[in-house]
Design a protein that fits this description.
Residues 23-259 form the Methyl-accepting transducer domain. It comes from Falsihalocynthiibacter arcticus. There is one protein chain. The chain is α+β, with helices and mostly antiparallel strands and 469 residues long. Helix content is 71%, strand content 12%. It has eight helices and ten strands. The strands form four sheets. The protein has a four-stranded antiparallel beta sheet, sandwiched between helices. The chain has a two-stranded antiparallel ribbon with strand order 1-2. It has a two-stranded antiparallel ribbon with strand order 3-4.
Length: 469
């Protein structure tokens, strides 16, 4: 036998419908909470995918760089080998040259010693020549005296005069020869002195060349040792680079497997999130349907309130059109222009000024209805909210974070809840969503909306957001 239904206000109400309504509402709460976590995981997963992509690019760059290192090390090794050969050849040439230079220096030093001996010999010759010149002068004097005595002797001294004249002539020639010899010895001594000086300079330079050669030999020996060390290090680098290449090849399959797993997980989470969104829509539809069938709900007083305020807004808009305060085309004009200097960006629409005049009196009263109510505001079909409650309509500052929380009027909220509120045509729409409180904290909220109809056209909806407790 079918039990008799109860009647409330002339309508039959099955308690099971009310239970279904409350259960659907609680289910919606849980589903939205799960959807929030899924959304968070989805964001993190996609972030990980981005990170994996960057890591892959980085691994590819490492592999490319490692290949470049191997090539460069090979070139360095080859160049070092060639350089070492050239250095060793240079060392051999310098040592050979050093030996030859040493022989030259010793020969030059021998010449210097011989020049000293020649110089001493010339000095002796010069002394002997001076003695000859002195004797020639003395002979000349004797010859002159002999001529004088021969002249005094007359005819008896004529023979002696001839001899004296010959001796005088010989003394003159001897003196002239001695003078020539002296001049030649002087010139030869000058040349020998210059040659000795030059030989001494050459000897010093040869000694300097020998010292430089020894230093060069020492430097080349150091270079050779450094080149050999570089070759050894290049070989070690090449071995390490080869190990890196091998490790990269071993790691790549595992890395690709991880990437594939993350991609599959991301795809699964994305699909789960989409399906959960559909569950949210269904739970909201169940609540709405059960309430329309007469079922009781914890939200019934808020439902009646939002429907009442939606009617008030619709009537106010139509009255404004009739009175000429705003035109129908202006009211439905969805042209938004940015307000300069605002962050987040606020926007003006052709109907914003009209809304600022007529909506506050309707919206502000709602805040006193229940302490759980957070805000009451109207949005158009694009989620544009022209006029907010006074507490959320502060003058913008230079702090974007402060503006985000306190300057929420004249902004577009085109999230899922905002767009559904502005496009719903049913008598009411009850949605549950997670409100971001900042710092990774969220709180569950209810969003109740009702359509705003103006001369048979949907303008948007009025939203009332309130806490669960």
């Amino acid at each position: 036998m079918i039990p008799a239904p109860e009647f409330v206000n002339g309508q039959a109400v099955d308690s099971r419908i009310s239970t279904l309504s409350r259960t659907a509402s609680a289910l919606g709460y849980e589903i939205v909470d799960i959807a929030g976590f899924l959304d968070l995981i989805n964001e993190k997963t996609h972030s990980q995918l981005g990170t994996l992509a960057e890591v892959r690019k980085g691994a590819a760059r490492v592999s490319e760089a490692n290949s470049a290192v191997l090539l460069a090390v090979k070139k360095v090794s080859d160049a070092s080998f060639q350089m070492n050969g050239a250095v060793e050849t240079s060392m051999a040439d310098i040592r050979k040259t050093s030996g030859q230079t040493k022989d030259v220096a010793e020969w030059v030093q021998t010449i210097d010693e011989r020049m000293t001996t020649v110089e001493a010999t010339l000095l002796g010759v010069q002394e002997n020549n001076d003695a000859i010149a002195k004797i020639a002068r003395q002979v000349n004097i004797l010859a002159i005296n002999a001529k004088i005595e021969a002249a005094r002797a007359g005819d008896a001294g004529r023979g002696f005069a001839v001899v004296a004249e010959a001796i005088n002539e010989l003394s003159h020639k001897t003196a002239a020869a001695a003078a020539g010899i002296s001049d030649n010895i002087t010139s030869l001594s000058g040349w020998i002195g210059s040659m000795k000086t030059e030989a001494g300079g050459i000897s010093e330079k040869a000694t300097s060349v020998l010292t430089g050669a020894e230093l060069t030999d020492t430097a080349l020996t150091g270079i050779s040792e450094s080149v050999k060390l570089s070759m050894a290090q290049a070989s070690q680098i090449a071995a390490d680079a080869e190990n890196v290449r091998a490790a990269g090849q071993e790691f790549e399959p595992s890395f690709n497997l991880i990437g594939g797993s993350v991609e599959e997980a991301a795809e699964g989470i994305s699909q789960a999130f989409t399906r959960v969104q559909a569950l949210i829509d269904r739970s909201e539809s169940i609540v709405q349907t059960t309430v329309e069938m007469g079922g009781t709900s914890d939200d019934i007083s808020f439902i009646n309130l939002v429907k009442e305020r939606a009617t008030m807004v619709s009537n106010t808009f139509e009255a404004g059109i009739i009175e000429g305060a705003i035109g129908m085309s202006q009211l439905f004009d969805q042209t938004y222009s940015d307000i300069a200097g605002t962050n987040p960006v606020q926007k003006m629409a052709p109907f914003t000024s009209f809304m600022d005049r007529v909506l506050p009196i309707i919206q502000e009263e709602v805040l006193t209805f229940d302490e759980r109510i957070v805000f009451c505001a109207c949005v158009d079909r694009n989620g544009y909210l022209p006029t907010h409650n006074k507490k959320f309509s502060q003058k913008p500052s230079h702090d974007p974070a402060w503006n985000t929380a306190n300057c929420r009027n004249r902004r577009i909220f085109d999230d899922r809840v905002g767009l559904k509120s502005g496009n719903n045509k049913e008598p009411f729409l009850l949605q549950v969503y997670r409100r971001d409180m900042g710092g990774g904290e969220f709180t569950m909220m209810k969003d109740l909306s009702a359509p705003i109809i103006v001369q048979g056209r949907l303008w948007g909806g009025i939203r009332i957001a309130y806490n669960f407790k």
